[in-house]
Amino acid sequence: MTQFTAQVDVRKYAPKDKQPAIFGTWNNLKPGEKMELINDHDPKPLYHLFSAEHAGLFTWDYLEEGPDVWRVAISKK
């Protein structure tokens, strides 16, 4: 079973608060720690943001791929 340091369920956030919650959680992770992201749609655009801002510093693994719930494990290297 996967151990997460933090979980961010962005379904409960207003749109303007989603990215600050996600990146705030990410910034607090130590190398080797992992967060779980839960969303109601594919967060692929967020993957591209991570790739642009944190290239080589993360892993992105889908745990559940819809259609109603998307879960992603994001690890900090």
Write the layout of secondary structure elements.
Elements: E1 6-9, H1 15-28, E2 34-39, H2 44-53, E3 58-65, E4 70-76
Parallel strand pairs: 1-2
Antiparallel strand pairs: 2-4, 3-4
Which class of secondary structure composition applies to the elements?
alpha+beta
Number of strands: 4
Instruction: Give the H and E element order.
Output: EHEHEE
- Give the count of helical stretches: 2
Unreliable stretches covering 5 or more consecutive residues: none
Oligomer: single chain
Radius of gyration: 12 Å
Characterize the structure shown.
The chain is an alpha+beta fold. The chain has one domain (6-71). Helices cover 31% and strands 32% of the residues. It is built from two helices and four strands. The protein has a four-stranded mixed β-sheet with strand order 1-2-4-3, with helices on one face. Strand 3 and strand 4 form a beta hairpin. It is globular.
In short:
With 77 residues, the protein is of the alpha+beta class. 31% of the residues lie in helices and 32% in strands.
